[in-house]
Amino acid sequence: MTDEKPICSAKDCRTPAVWVLAWNNPKLHTPERRKTWLACEEHREHLSQFLGMRGFLKGVVPLADWEESRASGDDRASGGDQVSGGDGSAADR
Q1: CA–CA separation, 23 vs 61, rounded Å?
Q2: 80: alpha, beta or left, given left = phi > 0 and alpha = psi -120 to 50?
Q3: CB of 37 within 8 A of CB of 21?
Q4: What distance in Å separates the CA atoms of residue 37 and residue 82, rounded to the nearest whole number?
C-alpha cells in the first residue's frame, strides 16, 4: 500500500483531491461505465462544468465516500474503473 495521496486532475494542480467526478462519454462507453477525475476544492466547479457542458458528468461525491464504497466491494460507484489521478491532462481522460 502506498502513502501517496490522490491529487487533483486539473492541469498543473498538485493539490490533494477531495472530490471524485464520475463521468461517461456515451459515444465511447457503455451506459453503466464510469470514468473518474479527481478534484480539489478549487477545481471542483471548473472540472464539473467542463464535463457537464458535454453531457458527460454523472455525479460528484467526496473522495472518502468513493473510496469507502470501493473498499466495501460496491462497484456501482465506479463501474469498475480506477480513479484517475492528476497528470496535468484531465481534458484528455
Answers
A1: 12
A2: left
A3: yes
A4: 10
Q: Which grid cell sits at 27?
A: 459515444
Q: Return per-residue pLDDT of the chain as tens, 93 residues.
A: 456 889 999 999 999 999 999 999 999 999 999 999 999 999 999 999 999 999 999 999 999 999 998 888 765 454 445 455 544 444 433
Return the residue matching grid coordinates 472530490.
Answer: 19
How distant is the alpha carbon of residue 3 from its chain centre? Answer: 19
Q: What's 11's DSSP letter?
A: T
pTM: 0.76
| C-alpha grid cell, residue 44 | 471542483
